[in-house]
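Worked Example 4.2. Consider the chain below.
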Amino acid sequence: MTDWAGFECDTFSAVMPVGVSENLNTHLNRDDGQEDLCFVLWRPSLGRGRASALIVDVVLPGIDERHVHGNASFESVYFSRSAAIAREQPCGLGFIHSHPGARNWQGLSFGDFAAESGIAAQSEALTGLPLLGLTFATQTHSFSARLWRRVDRRRFEPQWCESVRVVGKRIRVNFNPQLRPEPSMRASQARTVSAWGKDIQADLARLRIGVIGAGSVGAQVAEALARTGVARITLYDFDVVEEKNLDRLLHATIEDSMASLPKVEVLRRALMKISTAANPEIRALEVSVVEPKGFADALDMDILFCCVDRPWGRQVANYLAYVHLIPVVDGGVHVDLTPSRMRGAEWRAHVATADRCCLECLGQFDPADVSLERSGLLDDPHYIQSRAPRGSALPSGENVFAFAAAAAAAEVLQFLASFVQPAGVEGLDPQIFHFANGKVDLDTRECADNCLYSGIWFGRGDSLDVTVTGRHHAAEGIRTHPKVRVQSRLSWLRTKVAAMLRRLQFKERREIK
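Applying the procedure from the previous section yields the following C-alpha cells:
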C-alpha cells in the first residue's frame, strides 16, 4: 500500500466508474426526499502533483445499521463492518451522505463537519488511509469530496478535492468552484458555446487533458482542443521534427526540421497563439509516457488522448485507463498497400474506460510486441524487415495528412460524445472508417473473460504491484543527441528573446500614448 501520509501535493481529486455512481444514486436519491448515507471503498492513485481517490465499491447499510429521520445517522456497528471490509481489501474508507434538492458542489455544514471529523481518526487508524468524505447533490446527481488529513496529534481538517469525476460511457466532472473556478467566456468561443451551452463549455474548459504523441494525429487533436477552449493541455512526445514529417505535421516548418526542434515545443508554440481560452496553460514535455516521469505526470490528467502507434505506449495508456480510471481516447491510421498501389486505408477511434472494451482486447497492441519494444528490437530495421512478412500488425508508418485529420476528428468526436452526451446518448461505440468504400463499421467487442484490465486490475491504482514503465532508449538517445540538445537550447533562447522584444515594444507604445 502506498504511503499516502508521506505524499506532498496541493491538488486532490476523486473518481468513480459509472457503475458505482449509479449504485450511489439509487441508494441516496430517495423517493421520500429524506437524507441518506452509506460508506464506500477507495484506493489511492498518486501522480506527479495530484492525489486521486479511486472509489471502487459501495458498502450499503444492513437492517438497523442506519436511521433516516429527515436527516440520517448510523450505528457504530455499520462503521466497524465497513472499516473491516476496507482493511481486508485493502482500501481506504469513504463516507457519503446526500443533500436532497441540492445542486452542484456542496460545502460542509456544522453537522456534516462533526460527523466526518468524528470518524476521521479511527478510519485512518484502521485502514492506514485518510477518510474520504463525499456529498451527493440529488438535484444534479453530482458529487463533492474532501480528504480528512491529520494536522496535529488529535485534529483533522478537510483537504478539499478540486473535482469529482465519473467515468464510463458517459464522462462527467463536477468541479470545486473555489479551486477550479468557472472561466470567463470569450468572443472567440461564441459559436462553440452556442452549440452546447455555457455549462458544458465551462466544464470542458476546466479539464486537464493530456495528448500522448505530438505527431500527425496528436497535433490535430491538440489543435481541436485548444480552439474548443480547453485551457490546460499537456503534450507528451520525445521526438523531433524531421523533413519527412512535413507532409502531415501541423504547424511544423522546414526551419523546424533543419533545427531538429522537439515536436512538443513546435506544437506548444502554435497552440499558445490559436487557443481561445482566456488563460491557456500549454505544457510541452519531451518524454514518453512509458518513462516514469511521463507516467507520473499523466496520472494528473482528467482525460488522455493516445496518438501513438507503438505497442508499449498503448499498453501504458490502457493501464492508466483501467487501473487508474483515467479515460483514454485512442485511434490510429492503417494504410493497406500492394507492391504497386494502395489497396485501401482505414482509421479508427474509441474510448478506453469503464464499461468499454480495453485496447488489448480491441487488438490495438500485442503484449508480445510490448516486450520487443522494451528490448529495443522494434527500433532495429533488420528485425522489423524480417518480421513483417509474417503478417505482423506492427506500425509501418504510411500515412497522409487527410487520413491523420480524419482520425483526429474521429477521436475528438468520440470524446465529445461521451462528455456532451447529445440527445442523451452516452457516447459512441468504437468506430472503424474505410477509405475505399466510405463505410463505417462499429466494433462491438467486449473484453475477454480473463482480461486483466477490466477484471482483477480494474481500479487498483497504486495498490497494484505491477510496473509498466522503464527506460526508453530511443527517447534517451534523441534527448542526448548533440544536435538536438544544442538546437533545443537555441529554440528556447529564441523564444525568450522574442518575448523580451514584445514586452519592450508594448512598453514603448504605452509611453508614446
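The chain has 15 helices and 19 strands. The radius of gyration is 24 Å. Compare this with Example 4.1 before moving on.
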